[in-house]
Every structure is written in structure tokens, then in C-alpha cells.
Amino acid sequence: MPKSQNSTRYLIGMIVAMLLWGMAWTAGKMAAAHATPQVAGFWRYAISFLSILPVIWMMKIPFKTDLKGVFYMIAAGLLTALFNYLFFAGLVHGEAGYGGTMVTALSPIVTYLISIAFLGVAVAFWQIVALTLGIAGALILLRVPYEGLGFLTLESIYFLGCAIVWAVVTIFAQKASHRAHPMFYTTVVFGVAGLTNMLFALPYHPFDVGSYDSTFWWTMIFIGLFPGTFSTALYFISAGKIGAHNTGVFMFIVPVGAIVSSWIVFDEQIAMSTIVGCLLAFAAVSLFGIKRG
Asked: What is the reported pTM?
């Protein structure tokens, strides 16, 4: 197969992975209407963990890391469990399209701010400009120019919490990237998150299978298998072929999957402030990543 066709195949794979991650927000809202956030959170990662095991076995992924790697994976798993709860709790109160857009747009900005404030990452002038754009986009996404502190609703607070937690998870993932294979890292994170969510779900009887209808189970299977295991594997395989440094831009596709699927399923209308804020945040991420000689 010619190299260009081979690259195109992996580019398509990356786009599919991003769209499925976006669609997880709409499927998550469907599931949140049929079970508690604790139960939905547990089954999401239980299914992902069980289904990713044969994948890493077939890919012959090495189960190797060191003590620091173990710490980063466990910490990321615990935080992913928290993210998972905030994800479903936010979708109980808020819109899937808004949640998918807000979290995807704000998380990289929060990651940069944490890295600069606490990890001593140096920034150049154009990166300060990028952060200014990102903060402006965040304020617009939170509707601060229009509503002031009115953004402090359950919907926005849960999704803002998702963005902050995911930013910290991203930093742990970066720390672990040189200590463990990304698929092994993901498997451990799935397992720790699933186990943690299970402990909090036990009072709600997650194993009483007959208590949950077919809509819940079909959406859980979809989220666990496709945005979970399938998209994760597709992402890492494609990233390995097109270069990890080129993958960041594809995250901009996630809101498209969230917005379009939520519009089709729930007839959600996307606000202009969400679009403007999202574009500013994505412009900031792109500018921040520019390499200057």
C-alpha cells in the first residue's frame, strides 16, 4: 500500500476515534436518565476494562513499568473515577453537546495553567497570548460576560469539575508516558477507575441487572466498547503512525461528535456563546503548541 494511502487510513482512524469520544456524551446522557451516576460510572469502566484485556493481549503489549509509573497509573485511575462520576452527574442536569464542548475546550487550558503554576513550565510571549485567548474562551463558555456568576449552576459546576480533573489526569498521563506503554497505562486506569466506581455504586445495587432497562444496557455497552476500548486502541495505533505530536489537533473533532449527536438524539440547540468560546479555546491550544525556533 502506498505511504499516502496508509497515512490516510490512520487519519480516518483518528477522526473516527474522536467522533466516538464526542458521541459518548450523548450516550452518557441517555444512560444517566436510566440509572444513578454511580451505577452508570461503574459499568462504563467495568465494560471498558474487561473488553480491553483481549486487545492488549493480541497486541502483545508489555506489562512493564516502575514504582513511579505505578503511582501515576493508580492516581490517574482514582481521578478518572471522579471524572466519571462528574461526567454522569453533569449529564443528569445539563446538555450533552454543551458538556462535550466545554470539557474538551477547557481541559487543555487548565492543563497549561497547572503546568505553569505548579510544575515550573516556562512560557514564551506567544504562549502568554495563547493563554489569554484560552481564558477569554473559558469565560465565554461559562457565560460570564452575559450572566456574571450565574454560570454557577449544577450543569456548569459539574462540567467545570470534569475539565479540571481531566487536566490533572492529562498531566499524570504525560508523566507516565515514558514509564509504561500507553495501552498498558490505559488498562490499569480503566481497572482502577472501575473498581473505585464500584465501591461507590454498591449501595445502589449495580449487580441487580434486572433493575435496569435495555436502553441503559445498550448505551453502557456502546460507551464501554466503542468510545472506551475501540476508540482508545484506534487512537494509540493511529497516533503511533501519524506522530503523537500531530494528534492534539484531532481533539477539536470531539465537540463535533457531541454537538451533532446530541442535536440528532435530543434536539439540543447549541448556543453562539458555546461556539465562540470553543473556537477561542481551540485557537489558544493551537497557538500554545506552535514551535518557535
From this structure: 0.86
